[in-house]
Amino acid sequence: MNSILSEKEYQSFIIDxxxxxxxxxxxxxxxxxxxxxxxxxxxxxxxxxQPEKMEKLYKIYKQDTEDTIVATINNEEVKNKGSRxxxxxKGVSVANIQLDLMYTKPATTYNKELNVLYNNNIFSVSxxxxxxxxxxxxxxxxxxxxAIISFELKANTAGQSYQDAIYxxxxxxxxxxxxxxxxxxxxxxxxxxxEQVYMTTKLDGPATFFLPFNMGNGIGIDAGAGNPIxxxxxxxxxxxxNILKKDSILEIIGKFMFIEVKEKVDEITGxxxxxxxxxxxxxxxxxxLRKLLDDVxxxxxxxxxxxxxxxxxxxxxxxxxxxxxxxxxxxxxxKIIFDNIIICTDRVVVDRQLQNxxxxxxxxxxxxxxxxxxxxSSDLATAISGNTKIVVTTIQKFPYIVGSVANLSSxxxxxxxxxxxxxxxxxxxxxxxxxxSEGNMTEEIQDMEDVIANEIxxxxxxxxxxxxxxxxxxxxxxxxxxGRENKNGQKEAFHIYSMKQAIEEGxxxxxxxxxxxxxxxxxxxxxxxxxxTLKTNEAKRQIARFIELHETNISQRIxxxxxxxxxxxxxxxxxxxxxxxxxxxxxxxxxxxxxxxxYVTRKGYNDIKALVxxxxxxKVDDAEYTESGMNGFxxxxxxxxFDKDEYQVLLVADKYQTGFDQKKLCAMYILKKLHGVSxxxxxxxxxxxxxxxxxxxxxxxxxxxxxxxxGDFARYYTxxxxxxxxxxxxxxxxxxxxDGYYVLDPMDIDKFNxxxxxxxxxSKEKRALEFLLQKAKKNIESNRTNxxxxxxxxxxxxxxxxxxxxxxxxxxxxxxLHKKYNFLNYLQSYLKIKSHGAGFNLNGQIQATGFAQxxxxxxxxxxxxxxxxxxxxxxxxxxxxxxxTERLSQIIAEINSKTGKEYDNEVAVKAMLQIRxxxxxxxxxxxxxxxxxxxxxxxxxxxxxxxALIEGLNQNQDFFTLxxxxxxxxKEVLGIFVDEIYKCLRR
Length: 987
Fold this sequence. Notes:
The two termini are 64 Å apart. The radius of gyration is 32 Å and the shape is globular. The chain has 5 domains: 7-256, no CATH class; 281-497, Rossmann fold (3-Layer(aba) Sandwich); 514-722, Rossmann fold (3-Layer(aba) Sandwich), CATH 3.40.50; 728-809, no CATH class; 870-986, no CATH class. Helix 11 (315-327) crosses helix 12, helix 27 (746-756) runs antiparallel to helix 28 and helix 27 (746-756) crosses helix 30. The protein has 37 helices and 35 strands. The protein has 987 residues and is α/β, with parallel strands linked by helices. It is 42% helix and 18% strand. It comes from Massilicoli timonensis. Keywords: Endonuclease, Hydrolase, Nuclease.
């Protein structure tokens, strides 16, 4: 039987392709295994590109010249703890004569000599190379005589695959052999068959960690791991058609590769251990950078870019590479495209990992400025106005420099946004556009109308600014601002590296594959004779908080958490596994930490310790607590302390649920409601792989329904697509509603704007502004109930939010509407939502008994089906329901007792909660909650009740039929859930 393709034939095929790409074929005998060089190529390159320098060296060293140069290179790579990557980039000095070992591509075509030198780089390939007497390598690629890449090839048609090549690297290749020596030998090693490619930059015997280097298979919701199948070429054709081309390799070595250095303090010795990693870009990282740069060279600053890259995509390095490449990018006419690159993060302090990544790449002094926690907004203004090429800052600093930076109209900016979320759709992002815009009042302003037109023009996409927004979970507003229209008119990301692909490729873990839900059961009663009348929603909140912080509830949950961790999780990662407990509040974090300490002390456990994380000071039982006080060290030290083997559990309250990279986290215990983006961000703290261990993840959830969790992940599992848009008519609809209240005087609005735009306002003018605002406030509050006043205030807030967003995403211009926006924006601070009288406190008035934590469901290996379509909310009618008041006994009865028939407590409770759970799954309600106030949300809520009741008919037919047939009872009973569902969905 004839074989289709043998390994040897595959080897020859690749060599032929490389020859077509300009490679020379070097004989294996020319390989100097002692130094991992091909001397013939090395000295051909040196004599051709630097003849005068070589002539001097030949005079000095005569017949020992070549040995001296090779020995010097070896010393730089091995003895001086250097690297082959460094010698290629920086060259070596021999007898004070600097020799270059590689020439990168010049940024422009102006310098003819540099372009000639670049074209004189020598690429060669050798087959069947003997690295030692026992190690024969299929292919080795050389750059100017220095070995840089090795290949182990396998042909699937001969019954072998890339996995056999990986096994060969791990078991038959000695990491001490000069060719494979870490940093001093090859830069990267590939295991490749006809279908897939894997790579490593460090051989380490059986512990060698290989990463996939594949294109990805499929597009959109079908995208996943692997490579496509082609009729006329091999699936891995991109290796010789793209990656191994001369320009590509020189770009990768010169612009992408670097040595990442991380320090870790040894717990025993106290000394810092340094871990070095050679970073070789993954395929999708090369792909996104090259596609971005190609597009920018054509479109310059006219476009924005959304990059939907999953956790585990290496986003930090992508941002660092992009910032450096954009800083030196020229167009086809050799003109620089961007004057300044600004990296924005929405965290309060610039992320240390991002700082290190940006600073680790080659740059000159003064090239980069990081706005750390010691820098002020004025420092940012100075850096933007000056010659600093790359500025790294928090987005929160921009609103403070509006008006203090001028004359930027001639400068071009690239703004790279790390984690494009809520901060990029509000005033912070508007401030970025405003500060950097071309409309910097450089022309003479004639009157107020010109000023307003200029102000409107400085919002939204600016002709001198391109935004590059990275996120794994794009919201509808993010897609509208930064996405591009596809052929169907929908907005989507410019480039996608999906969660699905990252999981399939093994870069992150699927955190939903071992998920257990728990249900808390209890009986609620009032413990006083009085039966006070209370506001239902507020009472509900207090009851929920009472249950959440109940001592019995906490102690039961802590027992479940600790015993599960000790029996199931602790042994993972060779006994170094860690867990996070996500609590619902700062007070809960304190109480759970106290219960944790009490339980482990009582049980005599000395192998499990916990830390706590929350912001500020919290008062619990008349005592004040802080994170640092409870832990015994500063907040800044927590990540490093938690990394130590001494601590196993971290209890958090709204901290470390985003941006926390702790690879040893194996378990998470959820004690709060999660929704939407927060679900994905929180649970994704577990998804980091932890080589060389085969890490498993565990989630115990006391607060959420698994179907809701799956639904939240489905939106961001592959691609996310925006199917609608926001239009000016939405704003005009709300404006019409505002005008219908007859509380705003058009003449007052005009007068307000005339004064507002006066230069150098004096106290007299400021008092005039205050008078106009106070007059409008009085008009709103006069002769109206609290509900009517609140409705007007909510409509004003709705108008402001929607108008600001429309300015950011469109070319919309209406000067009269902008005047109204100015007036309402200032008026907003004068207006407060009013409540119904004094508050109340249920402390000591209710009691709960019969607590039980019962395991509900165990979910393993559940398949997530992508649900990529998201929508922007449109302007909806604002419908307010009167604030409901009931007696305490009635409120408790709605949870525990009868409704129309002789139902027992358990049936009533389960039925009510079932309705709530069905409502929580509504996509329409999720969208409404996320983008509206609670009062706006009520309209959609009551619109969905009947659908929820019909869905649950099969399980509670009598009860649900009663509610369906009686609108009054239905609204009274189910109205209690409006507040809870709104807040849960909005989170």
